[in-house]
Amino acid sequence: MNAEKAIKVLLVDDHEMVRIGLAAVLSTEDGIEVVGEASNGLDGIKLAQQYKPDVVLMDLVMEGMDGIETTKRLLQAEPQIKVIVLTSFLDDEKIYPVIEAGAFSYLLKTSRAQEIAQAIRAAVNGQPTLESQVATKIMNRFRQPKPEKLPHEELTEREMEVLKLIASGKSNQDVADELFIGIKTVKFHVTNILAKLGVEDRTQAAIYAYKHGLADS
């Protein structure tokens, strides 16, 4: 790959030694060129607009504007850039917000030089890279079982009104009169309520309503 087609990389990290190390390592990689370095988010955005890099290696914890806000603003200005987070942190409050801000990949600073270079090349080809612990966290988050709905949460608004009246001791005719509906409609609602709650009769339905705080006091 010649210099004209080299992947342009911008480093944004407030630790000078980290930037020096990254620049030195990446300079040995064929087809990757570090075009600039920034020690803070604002300078990173300015350099990104100036150099139009393909990839930005972004630290998360920096003085002033952190990596999350920097990523968000940078991508608003230059949406074509691929932001690769390179950090020491695995906290949920950092992982999810920066991904929502548009970060393309997430690596730890313990990653080997080859892994970083590979992630840079992959990003340019549209392939995100997630550090294994980050990937596990994300997968576990979406694998968490959703809480099951309680039976009464399946009731319609009208059925809930009928249930409350049943719990207050109203007869079918009382319910019909109060809700201005026909007696057949009330019976239809009662049948549905019993089925959805999994109870056998109006008394059990009333008990259910009181047990779950659904009855009017």
From TrEMBL:
Supply the PROSITE patterns for this chain.
HTH_LUXR_1, HTH_LUXR_2, RESPONSE_REGULATORY
Q: One of this protein's Pfam families, by short name?
A: GerE
Q: Name one GO biological process term.
A: regulation of DNA-templated transcription
Query: SUPFAM superfamilies, from UniProt?
Result: C-terminal effector domain of the bipartite response regulators (SSF46894), CheY-like (SSF52172)
Q: Which residues carry this modification: 4-aspartylphosphate?
A: D59
Ranges for domain Response regulatory? 8-124
Record-level Gene Ontology MF annotations: DNA binding
The chain positions of domain HTH luxR-type read: 148-213
Question: Which keywords appear in this protein's UniProt record, sorted alphabetically?
Answer: DNA-binding, Phosphoprotein, Transcription, Transcription regulation
Q: Which residues form a coiled coil?
A: none
Q: Which InterPro entries match?
A: CheY-like_superfamily, NreC/VraR/RcsB-like_REC, Sig_transdc_resp-reg_C-effctor, Sig_transdc_resp-reg_receiver, Tscrpt_reg_LuxR_C, WalR-like
Designated name of the protein: Transcriptional regulatory protein LiaR
Provenance organism: Xylanibacillus composti
Lineage, broadest ranks: Bacteria, Bacillati, Bacillota, Bacilli, Bacillales
Question: What would be the name of the gene that encodes this protein?
Answer: liaR
